Amino acid sequence: MVLLKLKCPPERRKAVVAVSLSTSPPTCSLGAAEGSAPTFRIVLTLRLDNSTQPGRPVTICTQGTVFAPSYEGGGLDTLALGTIGPLISNSDPQKKISLGHFKPHHAHAAGPPSANLKERDWLDFLTIPAEGAVQVRHDLPISRMFEYEDRLTKDDMKVGETYHFGIHTGYLGTTWWCWGDLDGDLKEKKLSAWQDGINFEKAEKPTPEQVEKEGWVLGENPAELAFEDRTGSAEFQFVD
Questions:
Q1: 45-86, pLDDT tens digit by residue?
Q2: Which residue in 50, 81, 117, 214 is a FRET match for 101, CA 20 to 30 A apart?
Q3: In angstroms, what is the C-alpha Rg of the chain?
């Protein structure tokens, strides 16, 4: 799902999420047996910048974005959705490694989904702290790196060869967000499917009385939380 992004004048922005891209470690071993060396990972680092409410964290829904977690044994991982890549050789731009570009179709629930987003088990959320940063890590061992690549294999790689890659801008953002910390002030709260801006689900907005008595938190306008790729691209090198 490529995100629908609406333009928002800078003066209307509530906060900016600065995103940087890297790998850990900065090299990927071609010869080491899997499990014998540190797992190669793509790392996304998120921090708040230019917030209109300094000192307050932000919580985002990660579904359909590059920040969504990948679960072992859970089918296609986040990288297989085209969120990152391809990995492109610095010495030969025609040499590209695709990590996948699948468009999964999800079955619809039998009944209407819960108005409380926390009760929708297919959704994940991430809190970006007011100070410091939070990281999202996607494992990318050699066996996974070439899983959906049709032309190239590990044997086509050369020791010392450097590759670069970037974030697909269509997956950089969120469809729902609010102020607060999942493990702090939001822990006992209900996250309302209603949100300011475009109300995709035509969800009913909780009344002020319901907000106070039932603990509802309303979604902010997704357009007013800007995401900026501060890296552009990241690099890594193949080693023996």
A1: 999 998 999 999 999 999 999 999 987 665 679 999 999 989
A2: 117
A3: 20
